[in-house]
Write a structure and sequence with these properties.
Keywords: Cell cycle, Cell division, Membrane, Transmembrane, Transmembrane helix. By secondary structure, this protein is α+β, with helices and mostly antiparallel strands. Helices cover 36% and strands 22% of the residues.
Length: 637
């Protein structure tokens, strides 16, 4: 019994504790479930918030930013590039091309992409032995073999290994060759270019000038074919045309154009052609004759020009030094044009001003006789004739035909300085001619209020003032044209891309003197080319042309010695201006020789060179011979 009670007592005592433990476990389980449920709900809420936010952002983007993002993406894959316009041609008066353009290609390579491509290839296939260097060497060898006259293999290898992401390789490649190279080697791209061609090479180069691509920047848009000298520069706006614009798709950071993606936005408009007054055959002959004569008399240089006697059109204009514009000029001096840019003291050839003023003023007639001494005093300066002589009776014609300084100053005293200066200005002294070429100098005539006592002892004989050979020749054109000076010009017309021919504005003209005076002066100057004994011989019988009357004037102007700053007795400007033929003027020729050796036969006069040029002109243009030889007049009584 006790034992049994004891057993029950124990069991009865443990019951309540066990009930509590079960309940605790149940409570903990319920709490866990509630916690999990709460976390799940919270997670769903967070996820819902994120999705809603993402949805709202997407809606915002689609509704408000889609257009801007689309445009940004489009800009990243498209590029606008210029389409070069075809440059206009330059033609002579007969339609012969002096300058034109041909289409070429310029090869380039994206070095950055090429390096990445071949570095990856070398890692993936090291057994091939191929890498960027081997590929570059292969391409360089191939290109050099296709265009050996344009680039060497060494030059190409240097370009491939330069520290840059992009580089140009070679210019002036023929389109078909460039396409073949690019097809064989996709790394090599090309852009359209144009090459300027000068078929006459040195012929008229100082007039036509030079045009080339500006490659001082790697920016393709800055590469344009522009004139750098001569008419190519002076009339660049007419010749260059208007570039077009093109859209292309690009890859690899915008450096490489994807073939076949080009779309034109605006086509290029070609430039206008220029028609010149120049006759390229005459130009060639004048350049050849002048260069040979300069060499013969060992001159430092020289220039010459041929003008139409009535229209002032320039048939030829030459300098002793020229260049071949198909090749890069050696220096800027080579591209210069001294015939319009370099003035000089003309000497006695400028006595035409004094002669015209004297005849027009009526102070003398061609047959008027003056007793001319061998020298005369002007202020503190003594003027001499070029040869020693006692006082002699010269006709006015003789004073100019024999080029007496003293006789000229005696006439100038009667004319007076104001009338002389007025006549000089009408002849164009101290003024640009308006020939239409860059760099033209106006020459120099001292202002009237700056004249000293000796100024009027220099100007009438062609010292103390300066002019270009074009200015000098223009003076004689006025006399040949009945006293009317017409602006010389080299451009006749321009022809627009649509074929319209637009003549240049009419040149300005100035009446220098009346027709009777001009005719008198012209006839007086025929005596310059007379030969024979002292009483009849002018200063340039070698300038005479058989069968034709020739009017002309020689000149010998002293140059300033750079060492002493004084007039030199050994350095001279030798000049000649002549009218062919004198009875029916067709051409006027002007020549300047810079410091020839006057001890060499022909060095003290350009008359022989004039005769050579005049003979060519007479034959080329079939100029009729003069009906009569003209009177032979006595120059010294």
């Amino acid at each position: 019994m006790p034992a049994q009670r004891g057993t029950r007592g124990v069991q009865s005592g443990r019951g309540p504790h066990r009930t509590y433990s079960v309940r605790a476990r149940r409570n903990r389980s319920a709490t866990t479930v509630r916690n999990n449920r709460n976390r799940f709900v919270a997670g769903r809420i967070v996820l819902t918030i994120v999705l809603v936010a993402a949805g709202l952002k997407l809606v915002h983007i689609q509704a408000f930013e889609a257009s801007a993002l689309s445009e940004r993406a489009e800009r990243q894959r498209t590029t606008i590039v210029d389409i070069p316009a075809e440059r206009g041609s330059i033609l002579d008066r007969n339609g012969a091309e002096l300058a034109f353009s041909v289409e070429t290609r310029r090869l380039w390579v994206n070095l950055r992409q090429m390096r990445l491509t071949w570095e990856e290839y070398a890692r993936e296939k090291p057994e091939s032995g191929e890498n960027f260097d081997t590929r570059a060497a292969e391409i360089a060898d191939h290109i050099a073999g296709r265009v050996p006259d344009l680039v060497t293999e060494d030059e190409l290898l240097a370009a491939f290994h330069k520290d840059a992401s992009f580089t140009y390789l070679v210019d002036d490649v023929e389109p078909s060759v460039a396409e073949a190279i690019s097809e064989k080697y996709p790394e090599i791209g090309y852009e359209k270019r144009a090459k300027r061609v000068y078929p006459g090479e040195e012929v008229a180069a100082n007039i036509v000038g030079y045009a080339n691509w500006r490659t001082d920047s790697e920016d393709v848009s800055e590469h344009n074919l522009h004139g750098l000298a001569g008419l190519e520069s002076y009339r660049d706006d007419d010749l260059v045309g208007t570039p077009g614009r093109q859209i292309v798709d690009t890859a690899q950071g915008g450096d490489v154009v994807i073939p076949g993606t080009e779309r034109d936005m605006q086509p290029a408009t070609p430039g206008s052609n220029l028609e010149l007054t120049i006759d390229s055959d005459v130009q060639y002959e004048l350049q050849r004759s002048l260069a040979a004569y300069v060499e013969k008399v060992e001159a430092k240089g020289g220039s010459a020009v041929i003008l139409d006697a009535h229209t002032g059109e320039v048939y030829a204009l030459a300098n002793h030094r020229t260049f071949n514009p198909n090749e890069p000029p050696a220096s800027a001096d080579d591209m210069g044009n001294p015939a319009v840019s370099t003035p000089f003291e003309p000497g006695s050839v400028a006595k035409i001003v004094t002669a015209t003023a004297a005849i027009e003023a009526g102070v003398a007639k061609p047959e008027t006789t003056l007793a001319v001494p061998g020298s005369m005093r002007v202020a503190d300066h003594t003027v001499h004739d070029a040869w020693s002589h006692a006082t002699q009776d010269f006709t006015v014609t003789g004073i100019f035909a024999k080029s007496s300084n003293v006789g000229t100053l005696m006439l100038a005293d009667q004319v007076g300085p104001d009338r002389f200066l007025s006549t000089l200005k009408k002849f164009g002294g101290g003024q640009r001619t308006g020939i239409g070429l860059p760099g033209e100098s106006p020459g120099y005539v001292p202002p009237r209020d700056q004249w000293s006592g000796t100024t009027y002892g220099n100007l009438p004989i062609g010292q103390g003032l300066s002019m270009t050979v074009v200015q000098m020749t223009s003076m004689y054109q006025a006399i040949a044209n009945g006293g009317v000076r017409v602006e010389p010009r080299v451009v006749k017309a321009k022809v627009t891309p649509d074929g319209r021919r637009i003549p240049e504005p009419a040149p300005e003209s100035v009446r220098v003197t009346d027709a009777k005076t001009a005719d008198t002066v012209k006839n007086m100057l025929r005596a310059t080319t007379q030969g024979g004994d002292y009483a009849y011989s002018g200063t340039a019988p070698e300038a005479a042309l058989e069968g034709y009357q020739v009017s002309g004037k020689t000149g010998t102007g002293q140059q300033v010695d750079p060492e002493t700053g004084r007039y030199s007795n050994r350095l001279h400007n030798i000049t000649f201006a002549g009218i062919l033929p004198a009875d029916e003027p067709r051409f006027v020729v002007g020549i300047w020789l810079d410091a020839p050796d006057t001890t060499i036969p022909g060095g003290s006069s350009a008359g022989a060179l004039y005769a050579e040029i005049a003979s060519y002109l007479a034959q080329r243009y079939n100029i009729p011979v003069s009906e009569e030889s003209g009177p032979r007049v006595k120059l010294v009584r």
